[in-house]
Amino acid sequence: MEEQNISRRSFVKGMALGTVVGYFASAGLSSTVFKKALLPKEKLEQVDIGEIKSLKLKVISETSWYDNNVFLNDVKGAGGLLVNQYTIPWTTEMVKSGYKGSNLGGFSTLIEAEFMDGTKKKFLLDSGWSSDWMEKRYKDEGVDEMLAKKQIEFLVQSHEHMDHFFGIQAVLKYNQNIPIYVPKGFYQEGFDLLKGKAFPEAKVKNDYPHKGTITVLDSSKVNVLYPGIALMTFDVPIILRVFGEQAFVFNVKDKGIVLVTGCCHMGIISYMEAVRKKVKGGEKIYAVQGGLHISPFEDWDPQYDDLILAFNKYGVQKIGANHCTGYITAEKMIKAGLPMVRGTARYMTKRDIYLGNGDELLIA
Ligand SMILES: [Fe+2]
Ligand SMILES: [Fe+2]
Fold first, then answer.
1. Does the pLDDT value for residue 228 go beyond 80?
2. Cα 31 to averaged position of ligand 1 atoms, centre (Å)
3. Alpha carbons 279 and 229: distance in angstroms, whole number
4. Which residue from 34, 137, 204, 344 could staple onto 166, CB 3.0 to 4.6 Å apart?
5. What's the average model confidence in pLDDT over 99-116?
6. Ligand 1 centroid, distance to 161 Cα (angstroms)
7. Residues having C-beta closer than 5 Å to ion ligand 1
8. What is the band of 47 on the pLDDT scale with cuts at 50, 70, 90?
9. Rounded to whole angstroms, how far apart are CA atoms 27 and 23?
10. How many helices, marked H, and strands, marked E, lie in the chain?
């Protein structure tokens, strides 16, 4: 038993190590933050993205899977971290803590922005994993109707990972024409799934082929979608054969920059540094919301303490973290005095220590 535990622990450690090349770079950035004061100032060409009046962020689902051991065993059984996610027979039965016995949940956030003239627009970040679970959550929150009535402008896929993307059928069922933004690096399987191809091995299908536009964004510039709303794309290699991640940058009047992320495989410090460098007003990051990818498997490495220390230096006033941030990280962040926004532990989110399913963060 002990031997099993040890091997699992080292596997988890390997998982963290392999997760993002940029992640450890970001963990080490705490020293860069200190060093920066000694270096000559770079000439910055910052993009003025404009501003919005207010922002409402609703967590549709941040519970990507329900049992860490079952998830890790699926990955291990399939051959490890570099295996193509479309070929892994993910566990969908007999999981006690799962949704209807399935280990699959998903990640998806509903965003509502209010523009300076008072008009509002809605967007969706990610489409979750299990289309069963996602459909339930979309229905619970009225997203099915918003989609059907074309009230959601577009869907942004933060990255191609199964827990953020494989539930796409639950979105397309209600609007097959929704415009979609994907990061450069999306694989052919991803485009095929959008078109209606099934991947029986991975137990994923899409019966509602996408008919709208797909925009592929690269990391060359800050992409302004509407005044005050932009996307930044990062070229990062990610485990389970995924490449590239993008995240939102909002500029809320009188508050500052608000970052909304999916998994944040590029590393939260790298993300914040890129925003400081490339976005006007980026030195005042008011809030961060979404997955921060620190201890998704609830393991802890002393290096992560440095990351929290570094994070603390940015003066962020609201942290609506969840998902792959990990509960241990949330505890440590609170202990370090970081302004974590608490949730209500409903709809399968286990603890109220962070923003969970059905919880909302209002920036106004
Ligand atoms: Fe991910
Ligand atoms: Fe994720």
1. yes
2. 26
3. 11
4. 204
5. 98
6. 5
7. 161, 263
8. very high
9. 6
10. 12, 13
